[in-house]
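Work Package 4 report. The design task specified in the project plan requires that, given a folded chain encoded as structure tokens, an amino acid be chosen for each position. We show below one input record used in the internal validation round.
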């Protein structure tokens, strides 16, 4: 593997010490810089032209991307993009970054990205409960980790809040907004079933109190074939005696209070509380 290919594999930016450990020489690095194949960002750091900003920030900050900043690289769901880069640093990190300490599992590649275990543990300790639950649900859904594994790595009183976030995860969601909606419904004391198969209707996202179907629509639900299918499902649901509410990403993430108001409006018509 030549130098530029290795740098691509390493995230397009790396410390020269990483290149030397991979078997490249100081001379080969200097030659690549001289001909313009790579750029020297500072002493000890080189990058390919157009190296991603987050990867560059990690290497320049002497750290690894972690928590919300590593979600996309670990193929985890992310509810919101972080306003600052999150880095795992052994020593003092950049002043403009959210710095995390402590690593349980080393990364499995030269990319400046923390291991999935570290990413999830840091998110559980750092992010709002809803956002951390979304990331953990994604990992659990893919079989990357288990709740028991994570719980065992969060001992003691100081990790109590992080362990409570794990109680919000059940691995049944097909999307980030399903995690958010499930948490909202259950936190309100509503009897909530997920991914329920109903005769003549099919599998619905949520069944609340046994009669209110709540469906969450992604981009595919705007396609003509899916619109026709959804219309037929709505009609079948109503004819079978169910009530139906449908919401999209923006509704769930930006207007949860409106969703809850509408859900309760329907429920209070048939549930005595």
């Amino acid at each position: 593997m030549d130098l530029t290919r290795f740098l691509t594999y390493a995230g397009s930016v790396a410390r020269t010490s990483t290149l030397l450990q991979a078997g490249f020489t100081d001379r080969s690095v200097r030659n690549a810089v001289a001909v313009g194949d790579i750029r020297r960002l500072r002493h000890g750091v080189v990058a390919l032209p157009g190296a991603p900003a987050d990867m560059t920030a990690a290497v320049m900050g002497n750290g690894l991307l972690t928590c919300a900043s590593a979600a996309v690289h670990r193929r985890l769901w992310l509810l919101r993009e972080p306003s600052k880069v999150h880095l795992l640093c052994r020593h003092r990190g950049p002043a403009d970054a959210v710095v995390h300490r402590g690593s349980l599992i080393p990364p499995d590649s030269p990319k400046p990205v923390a291991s999935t275990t570290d990413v999830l543990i840091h998110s559980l300790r750092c992010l709002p409960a809803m956002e951390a639950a979304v990331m953990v649900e994604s990992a659990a859904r893919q079989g990357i980790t288990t709740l028991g594994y994570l719980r065992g790595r969060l001992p003691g009183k100081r990790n109590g809040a992080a362990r409570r976030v794990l109680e919000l995860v059940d691995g049944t969601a097909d999307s980030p907004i399903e995690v958010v909606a499930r948490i909202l419904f259950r936190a309100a004391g509503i009897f909530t079933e997920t991914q329920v198969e109903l005769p003549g209707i099919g599998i619905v996202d949520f069944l609340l109190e046994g009669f209110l179907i709540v469906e969450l629509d992604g981009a595919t639900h705007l396609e003509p074939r899916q619109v026709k299918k959804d219309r037929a499902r709505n009609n079948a649901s109503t004819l079978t005696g169910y009530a139906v509410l449908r919401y999209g990403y923006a509704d769930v993430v930006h207007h949860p209070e409106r969703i809850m108001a509408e859900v309760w409006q329907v429920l209070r018509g048939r549930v005595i509380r």
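The radius of gyration is 23 Å. Validation will be extended to a larger panel in the next phase.
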